[in-house]
Amino acid sequence: MTKIYGHRGAKGSYPENTLLSFKKAIGQGVDGLELDVHLTKDGEVVVIHDETLDRTTNGTGWIKDLTLEEIKQVSAGSSFTHIPEYDEAWDLERVPALQEVLELLAPYPTELNIELKTYVFAYKGIEEKVQSIVEQYGNGRKVVYSSFHLPSLLRMKKVNPGANIAWLLNQEISFPADHIETLGLEALHLNKNIVLPRTEAAYRIMNLIGLYENIRVWTVNDPDQIRQLLDLQVNAIITDFPETAIALRDRKKTLV
Ligand code: G3P
Ligand code: CA
Predict the structure, then answer these.
(1) Residue nearest to ligand 1 atom 2, measured at CA
(2) Spatial distance between the Cα atoms of 204 and 208, rounded to a whole number of angstroms
């Protein structure tokens, strides 16, 4: 059964990458959560999408130049007044440390996809730090490390040979199965534009047939596209609107 992963929590309806967004996505019944991590000036792993505070908070500055304490001063919710569900209480949301998200998840079996945002700054040592936090607070849950920056994933595999690593791709690669096997990837995380819309012949040419169990697709919000991916039985759909995707999957199940 295709799993539904909430993108940055439930990004379509709540402030992305906040504890509120993760809580809401869990409440909606997600199988997994996706989030993004960076390293602060004082070496803490924080959950935020961009390299700076500017877009998603009321603060400014590079994450790499700020301490966790400085980052904790800004609101991670007040920039999202354009979301219809916006509530003033969101202004109290803060940029979470990875540890806080894992503590929130502790009672739930939710899978976690940690995207290492290492393609602008390498954040030396981030792989060891993330692995150590997951070991301490992960509660044994399934964790998948993804990145557009392949060396970061290979470093993660050195730190922990048992780590699930998934390469994020914006474009097709030749012989995906060879990449999976040779690089020890658990999955490929593919932009939906690579996967949709295609005919079976196209999937054959792309060598994707038989690999769907190792493919997660992002970021899919359109109901028709979600249905197509459910038909393909990909491993997971990463979406900003997990509630909708879960409802579509449940409806499909009752029809079968
Ligand atoms: O993990 C899928 C997706 O999150 C990658 O793109 O820019 O949303 O982090 P982005
Ligand atoms: Ca991401």
Answers:
(1) 218
(2) 6
